[in-house]
Each structure stands twice: as C-alpha cells, then as structure tokens.
Amino acid sequence: MAGHRGVIRWIATGMVLLALAACSAVYRNHGYVPTDAELEKIEVGRDTRDSVALAVGRPTASGLLEGSGWFYVQSRYRHYAWRAPQEIDRQVVAISFDEGGTVTNIERFGQQDGQVVVLSRRVTDTNIRGVSFIRQLLGNIGNIRADQFLGQN
C-alpha cells in the first residue's frame, strides 16, 4: 500500500510539472520589416522603386499615401495559455519616393507606451508625408477584434 502512494505522488507531481510547462508563452511574428543591414544597401537620392524591390523586396502596403511610399509592417504577438493573443511589438519601415520614383527618405517607427516613436531616420531635414497613417497603424494595437472582420457585433 505504501508503494502505491509513492507512485501516485510521482505521477501527480509529473502531471503538475507537465501542466506548468504547457502554459509557457509562445511568440509569433507576423509581417516583414527589412533589417538595418538591408536598409543600408539603399542609397537615398540614388535608388529607385525597382532597386529597392531587388534589395529588400516589395512591401505588403504601398501607395497608401498618394503613391509616395512603401510601408513594411511587422508585429510580434504573445500567446499565453487560454488567453487571447497580445501584440507586444509593432515596427513600421517607411520608404518615401519622389514623383520620379527615387528614394527620398527611409524611416523606422516603433510603438512605445502607446505613442509612435521614430527609431531611425536616414534623412532628417523633412518628415515623410502622411505620418498620420503610421500613427493610425501603430495606434490600433489591440483595437481590432475578429467580429469586426466578419461583420458581426
């Protein structure tokens, strides 16, 4: 009888440890943002849309601001047990072009404390046109629900 109690304790302890290990957080990345090393290959004032596409690829969001820029967006989500996924980071790289298709600006934006933060900027004399789009994009963290896409309330 005493031997059975020891086995039951070991099994119970193993099940508790297994349950705790199953509750560890899982992180997932969505989207694509070029690295700083990839962006260094792009020369402001020299490269064009085609050379940017060859260097870092085409973005999923383009032409949203009067056709003047390309936007690369990446989000990082934390999935923990039964809870809804939580977005913990979002970055946007904005590459601006002039009317002739030449690169005029490269900027990297991040999200910190609910505010848009410029992480890096290759041209500092002027800001990109339409920064309000980036503010909207980064400001919507956690404000989108699945039922909004499905048309249900």
Features:
153 residues, 6-stranded antiparallel β-sheet, elongated
Give the number of DSSP strands: 6
- Give the overall silhouette: elongated
Distance between the termini: 58 Å
Q: What's the number of helices?
A: 5
- Average pLDDT: 76
Question: What percent of residues adopt helix (DSSP H or I)?
Answer: 25-40%
Query: Unreliable stretches, pLDDT < 50, 5 or more residues?
Result: none
What percent strand? 25-35%
Radius of gyration over C-alpha positions, nearest whole angstrom: 23 Å
Explain the overall architecture.
The protein has about 150 residues and is an alpha+beta fold. It is about 30% helix and about 30% strand. It has five helices and six strands, in the order H-E-H-H-E-E-E-E-E-H-H. It has helices spanning about 1-20, 35-40, 50-55, 130-140, 145-150; strands spanning about 25-30, 60, 70-80, 85-95, 105-110, 115-120. The longest helix has 21 residues, at about 1-20. The mean pLDDT is about 75.
